Amino acid sequence: MWLFIFGGFIVLAIISIIFIYRKLRCFGIVKKIAGDSGKKSVLIRLPIIFALIAWCFLDTVTGVISVVHLFFFWLVAELLGFIVKKISKKDSSIYWQGGLAILVTVAYLSAGWYFAHHVYETDYELHTDKELSKGSIRAAVIGDSHVGSTFDGDGFAGYMKEIEKASPDVLVIVGDYVDDDTSKDDMEKSCRALGELKTKYGIYYVYGNHDRGYYNSRGFSAEELEAELTKNGVKVLKDETELIADSFYIVGRKDRSFTERLPMAELTKELDPSKYMIVLDHQPHDFEAEKNAGADLVLCGHTHGGQMFPIGITGELSGANEMTYGLRTDGNTNYIVTSGISDWAIPYKTATISEYVIIDIKNH
């Protein structure tokens, strides 16, 4: 799916650059300098186009996304100009459409950059009939930190201090903690920050599809990551369950990208159904099996909350994800998909925000 989306954006970028090149000649300043000379018009426009192409080569994801958005907003501005012309029945002496498209693109992507880099706290309150020790659990959830993307190891440590202020009973990490671009130094700093975090019941982690690395290009292995997490008191769950305070279970599933993982029914068949069950599963893709296995709460990441339109819609329509963001309830099972505390590759979030999640689970 990702290759299809990426290929589509590359084709759109080529179309966008051709469109922008043609439309640049409509600006008054280009007409004034070039006059009636087509060669001068070309010489004025080509440096701008070469700059856009260079941007797409040097920073492919950011460049392509920016150019495609400019193309889209420019088309909308052209349509608006056509409507204005039909209503007023006269041509404007000023080509305002291109300027409007540039301004809207800059404002839109600037907002997207802010929402990707500014982390919010999102709170949920859930209720259960199952008995909880002291009547409640406060769980903090982070996912998709992709350390090194929008913050480094020191930045991650700062967010852990923010989470600690919420006094969570437990912190769970629902995968994609690191990726191929994470440095070993940032990975180690982030793990030390987890080791310094104070919680009542500890920290639990499950793998995401990026955590093991894809290209063997980073300075540490999955085994070194796991060793560093374990050294700092993080419990790594790989198709394993943990009973906490004789009150609730945390069930940590291997990611769907693993070649083998236990079916949900087999993983939970020995568990006491009278106790509250929290399932950690990086990708939101096995909801029916998790519900049938008696899960009370399923926590996922992976989707980045849709990141940018139309990625979220595409993920659900293709069947890659059963849900993109937020809270859903089906019978006695609640599902929460976090948009993640950061993102991967794309430095913008226009469909959602970056967040960590605080969940209060209370007895009725």
Give the tags:
364 residues; alpha/beta; Purple Acid Phosphatase, chain A, domain 2; 2 domains; six-stranded mixed sheet; 12 strands
Q: What are the SSEs and their pairings?
A:
Blueprint: H1 2-24, H2 28-34, H3 38-58, H4 60-88, H5 97-117, E1 119-128, E2 136-142, H6 153-164, E3 170-173, H7 184-196, E4 203-205, H8 222-231, E5 234-236, E6 240-244, E7 248-252, H9 264-268, E8 276-280, H10 287-292, E9 297-300, H11 311-317, E10 326-330, E11 333-337, E12 354-363
Parallel strand pairs: 1-12, 2-3, 3-4, 4-5, 7-8, 8-9, 9-11
Antiparallel strand pairs: 2-12, 6-7, 10-11
Helix pairs in contact: 1-3, 1-4, 2-3, 3-4, 4-5, 6-7, 7-8
Give the overall silhouette.
elongated
Taken as a percent bin, the fraction of beta residues is 15-25%
Number of strands: 12
Sheet with most strands = 6 strands, mixed
Write out the strand line-up for the largest beta sheet, numbering strands in chain order. Answer: 1-12-2-3-4-5
- How far do the termini sit from each other? 42 Å
Within CATH, the superfamily of the largest domain carries the name Metallo-dependent phosphatases
Write down the secondary-structure element order: HHHHHEEHEHEHEEEHEHEHEEE
Provide the gyration radius in Å. Answer: 25 Å
Mean pLDDT: 94
Q: What's the tally of helices?
A: 11
CATH architecture of the largest domain: 4-Layer Sandwich
CATH structural fold name of the largest domain:
Purple Acid Phosphatase, chain A, domain 2
How many structural domains?
A: 2
